[in-house]
Amino acid sequence: MENLIIIGAGFTAATLTRFLNEKDPLIIDKGRGAGGRCSSRRVEDIGVFDHGLQYVSSKNNDFIEFLKDGLKENLLSWNGEFYNEKNELNKSEKFIGKNGNNEFVKKILKSKNQLYKTQVEKLIFKNNHWQVILNSNKSIDTKKVIVTIPEEQCYDLLKDVYDIDYKNQTMSNLTLMVAIKNNINTFSGKKIKEKEDVISWIANENSKNRDVNNSSLGLYTVQSTEKFAEKNCPQYYSNKEIIKKEMLKRFLNILHIENPEVKYCSIHSWRLAYKKNNFSNKVIWDQKKGLGICGDWISGPKLENSWENSKKFSDIYNNS
Ligand SMILES: Cc1cc2nc3c(=O)[nH]c(=O)nc-3n(C[C@H](O)[C@H](O)[C@H](O)COP(=O)(O)OP(=O)(O)OC[C@H]3O[C@@H](n4cnc5c(N)ncnc54)[C@H](O)[C@@H]3O)c2cc1C
Q1: What is the separation of C-alpha 199 from the centre of its chain, rounded to a whole number of angstroms?
Q2: Is there a contact between 257 and 110 (Cβ–Cβ < 8 Å)?
Q3: 97: which of 68, 74, 183, 307 lies 20 to 30 Å off by Cα?
Q4: Is the ipTM of this complex over 0.95?
Q5: Which of 274, 279, 305, 308 to mutate to test the pocket of ligand 1 (most atoms within 8 A of CB)?
Q6: Has residue 178 got a pLDDT over 80?
Q7: Does residue 295 line the site of ligand 1, with CB under 6 A?
Q8: What are the pLDDT digits (tens) for 200-232?
Q9: Residue 124, by phi and psi: left (phi above 0), alpha (psi -120 to 50) or beta?
Q10: CATH of range 171-275; options 1.20.1530.20, 3.90.660.10, 3.10.20.600, 3.40.50.1110
Q11: Over pLDDT 90: what percentage of the chain?
């Protein structure tokens, strides 16, 4: 019997492994490795695309100190030019991971017990412990379980065993990753300010100065507007090539790139990207059942929200 299982290996889980008074909980994630939405795609001979979280900025010194302590020399300052929804330039200091933004999780997550490519299908409460049913048709028993997955998935997993006040308001996002021969730009991040239906911003990966990036290529991570994602995410798997072409065409048009030699082009769909409103602001720790619920979506759309909720959760858990 395990003592504690944490479902999900994103930043919430990583932060919990630093704050909880528990050694080596078993971390289970359906993905290939730790990262979750702090994800970086590394393409051989091309470079790294941060196709999830773009950068971290915060006015909370404790949070930044936590990142500095966890990432050490791998936490780099980045000069990205980003504008907020009122078209004001975000002047606060921005941070990225030296080799990719998945380092926000990989460098912080601390547990010798990690199980990947394993989806938790169901949780069954057995009076004094949990039976965790996996997609491999196996199951693991544990005294306590903490769920750190996005709200909709959390609701689906727990609806038979726990009442969650579910709001279903997670935004979607489509992210295009493009490499173009001999197209080196100097801007770092571009929020598309003019009226635009398809693209909301473009990050220039070359501006992150990563050794692994191929210096003869212009590398861009391009994020869709919420409107475009809302329309296209439901048909993503049947329409993937058409959606990709439409985003690529619009991107080339915005940057005025003619006759491009496209060396790499791929798209990723984030059906559950982030939540923008209707926050409960309440982490859940049911000591009687040994069930915890934590994640960014409890209080906001950003990494900082994952951190603050994990910290809040750990205070309650450690004192219970
Ligand atoms: C496109 C995009 C851009 C973003 N940009 C920024 C930004 O610039 N700045 C910022 O601060 N934040 C940004 N965010 C938000 C930030 O990435 C999140 O707040 C943070 O990563 C959430 O971490 P988490 O651990 O709570 O959730 P997640 O990272 O989603 O981790 C949950 C994990 O659970 C796993 N999982 C789900 N269901 C199961 C299951 N049944 N069984 C096993 N495993 C399961 C998933 O594979 C995932 O790894 C962005 C997010 C997206 C999608």
Answers
A1: 19
A2: no
A3: 183
A4: yes
A5: 274
A6: yes
A7: yes
A8: 989 999 999 899 999 999 999 999 999 999 999
A9: beta
A10: 3.90.660.10
A11: 84
